[in-house]
Each structure stands twice: as structure tokens, then as C-alpha cells.
Fold:
Amino acid sequence: MTLGAGGALLHRGVEAVTRSALPVRTVADVTGAGDAFLAGFAAATAGGQADPLEWGLAAAALAVETDASVPALSPDAIRERLRAAP
Structure:
């Protein structure tokens, strides 16, 4: 479940996992942030990444930081955004 600026929550059986949203440099447009989160989460899950929530949050941050109608959400862009996060 996405929590907007609050990050995301994932339930695994009885365990609840939360992650904080990544800080964004500037908010250009929040349209599509949830879709971007889902795209990053799904790509990470399908690709065997260790933390799909982090990937989803990085994709959402990339989407929010641009006013492009279709943000660049390549795996390399997501990895770079995760490396740049404080």
C-alpha cells in the first residue's frame, strides 16, 4: 500500500514492512507517482531484487521529480536514484 509522502507498507503474512518515502529534490508533478511505484515494485519482484519497496519508492520519486508525461524508469535510473538517496 502506498502512503504518499509517508512511504509504503507491505504485509507479508503477519509481518508488516514499512519504508519511508525517498526525499525528493523538487516536486514537479505527483500525477502517476502511484503507477510508477507499482512499476518499480513489479519490476523488482520479477527481477529478484532484494527490496521491491525501495525500488517502488525510487520509481515514485523519479516520477514526482519530473513533469514528463512518461518518466524514465529504467532499472539503471532506479538504481542511480537509490544510490543518490540520503
Summary: The mean pLDDT is 90. Residues 33-47 form the longest helix (15 residues). Residues 4-84 form one domain.
